[in-house]
C-alpha cells in the first residue's frame, strides 16, 4: 500500500519541481547539435539571459535580455556554399543586433557574415570597403576586420572576419553564398578554408531583443 506520507512527499516534490521545469522550458542550454534535420548553434558569453528555442524545420525563436554578446541560429554543418532562403520576424533596428548568414572556416580560421539587417551599429564602421556584390536584387559591401584573442570555434584565437553588408536592410529573401565567397576572394583576396558550420544567425550585443527566423535550402 502507498502510504499517505509517501504520497505527500511525492506531491511536495512535484510542486517544488514545477518552477524549475518552467525555467528550463524558457530555452535550451547553449551548445550545438541537430534539431529536425538542421544543425543549430547557440552561443552566449553568459551575461544577461537568452531564451533560445529551436522550432520546426530550420526555425528558431529567441528573446534576449541585457546580454553582453550572444549569437545563434539554424543551418548546416559542414556548411559548404549553397543558396539559402530565409524568412521570419526580426525587428531590432533600435538596438545593437545583426541578422546574418553566419559561419566559420578553419585553415584559415575565418568568421564570416552576410549581413541582411543590423540595428544601431553598422559592423563596417571604421573599416574600408573592399568591393561590392549584387545578390537577389540588393547591393552588399565587402569588408574585412581582425579579431585578436577573441572567442572562436577553436577557443580563444586571433582571426579575420569577412563581411558582406547589405545596403538596404531586409528580413527575408535568398542568399547565393557561392557568389559572396567568390567575390570576397576575387575583389578582396579573402581566402576561406575548410567549411565548418553555416547558420542563419541572430546576434545581440549589449542589448535586448527578439527574433523568429526560419532558414532552408533555396
Ligand atoms: C516562413 O514561411 C513559411 C512559408 O510561408 C511559414 O510557414 C513559416 O511560418 C515562416 N516562418 C517564420 C519563422 O515566420
UniProtKB/TrEMBL annotation:
<dbReference type="InterPro" id="IPR013319">
    <property type="entry name" value="GH11/12"/>
</dbReference>
<dbReference type="InterPro" id="IPR033119">
    <property type="entry name" value="GH11_AS_2"/>
</dbReference>
<dbReference type="InterPro" id="IPR001137">
    <property type="entry name" value="Glyco_hydro_11"/>
</dbReference>
<dbReference type="InterPro" id="IPR013320">
    <property type="entry name" value="ConA-like_dom_sf"/>
</dbReference>
<feature type="signal peptide">
    <location>
        <begin position="1"/>
        <end position="17"/>
    </location>
</feature>
<dbReference type="GO" id="GO:0031176">
    <property type="term" value="F:endo-1,4-beta-xylanase activity"/>
</dbReference>
<keyword id="KW-0378">Hydrolase</keyword>
<keyword id="KW-0326">Glycosidase</keyword>
<dbReference type="InterPro" id="IPR033123">
    <property type="entry name" value="GH11_dom"/>
</dbReference>
<keyword id="KW-0858">Xylan degradation</keyword>
<feature type="active site" description="Nucleophile">
    <location>
        <position position="111"/>
    </location>
</feature>
<dbReference type="Pfam" id="PF00457">
    <property type="entry name" value="Glyco_hydro_11"/>
</dbReference>
<dbReference type="GO" id="GO:0045493">
    <property type="term" value="P:xylan catabolic process"/>
</dbReference>
<keyword id="KW-0624">Polysaccharide degradation</keyword>
<comment type="similarity">
    <text>Belongs to the glycosyl hydrolase 11 (cellulase G) family.</text>
</comment>
<keyword id="KW-0732">Signal</keyword>
<feature type="domain" description="GH11">
    <location>
        <begin position="26"/>
        <end position="216"/>
    </location>
</feature>
<protein>
    <recommendedName>
        <fullName>Endo-1,4-beta-xylanase</fullName>
        <ecNumber>3.2.1.8</ecNumber>
    </recommendedName>
</protein>
<feature type="active site" description="Proton donor">
    <location>
        <position position="203"/>
    </location>
</feature>
<comment type="pathway">
    <text>Glycan degradation; xylan degradation.</text>
</comment>
<keyword id="KW-0119">Carbohydrate metabolism</keyword>
<dbReference type="InterPro" id="IPR018208">
    <property type="entry name" value="GH11_AS_1"/>
</dbReference>
Amino acid at each position: 500500500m502507498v502510504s499517505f506520507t509517501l504520497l505527500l512527499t511525492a506531491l511536495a516534490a512535484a510542486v517544488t519541481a514545477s518552477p524549475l521545469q518552467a525555467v528550463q522550458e524558457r530555452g535550451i542550454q547553449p551548445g550545438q547539435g541537430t534539431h529536425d534535420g538542421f544543425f543549430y548553434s547557440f552561443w552566449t558569453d553568459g551575461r544577461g539571459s537568452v531564451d533560445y528555442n529551436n522550432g520546426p524545420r530550420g526555425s528558431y525563436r529567441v528573446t534576449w535580455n541585457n546580454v553582453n554578446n550572444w549569437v545563434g541560429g539554424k543551418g548546416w554543418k559542414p556548411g559548404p556554399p549553397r543558396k539559402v532562403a530565409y524568412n521570419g520576424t526580426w525587428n531590432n533596428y533600435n538596438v545593437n543586433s545583426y541578422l546574418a548568414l553566419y559561419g566559420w572556416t578553419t585553415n584559415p580560421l575565418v568568421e564570416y557574415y552576410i549581413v541582411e539587417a543590423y540595428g544601431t551599429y553598422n559592423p563596417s564602421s571604421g573599416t574600408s570597403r573592399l568591393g561590392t556584390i549584387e545578390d537577389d536584387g540588393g547591393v552588399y559591401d565587402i569588408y574585412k576586420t581582425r579579431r585578436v584573442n577573441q572567442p572562436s570555434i577553436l577557443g580563444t584565437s586571433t582571426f579575420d572576419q569577412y563581411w558582406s553588408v547589405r545596403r538596404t536592410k531586409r528580413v527575408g529573401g535568398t542568399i547565393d553564398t557561392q557568389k559572396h565567397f567568390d567575390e570576397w576572394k576575387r575583389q578582396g583576396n579573402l581566402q576561406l578554408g575548410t567549411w565548418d558550420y553555416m547558420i542563419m544567425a541572430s546576434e545581440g550585443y549589449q542589448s535586448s531583443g527578439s527574433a523568429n527566423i526560419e532558414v532552408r535550402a533555396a
